[in-house]
Amino acid sequence: MSTAQELTDQGAAKGIAQGLETTRRLLRGQLEEKFAPLPADVQERLARASARQLEGWGREVLRARKLADVFGQATPRGTKRSGAGRRKR
Fold it and tell me: What is the pTM of this model?
C-alpha cells in the first residue's frame, strides 16, 4: 500500500470515529435534556454503541416517554427486538 493510500485510509478512519463520537454526544445531550440524569449503565451503553444502535436510539428518543422506552428490553447478542409497538412507514 502506498503512503498516500495509507494517509487517505487513516484520514477516513479518523473522520468516521469523529462522526461516531459527535453522534454519541448529540444523543447523550438529547437523553440528558429529556431524562436527566442518565444512569451509569446507560452512559456505558452509549459509549460502546455502534453507529446503527445510536441511530435507532436517536429515533426512539423522539417518541419515548421514559428512558426505558428508548432502550427497550435488553436482548441477548445476536437477537433482534420485535417490531411490536413500532410505527410502520
Answer: 0.73
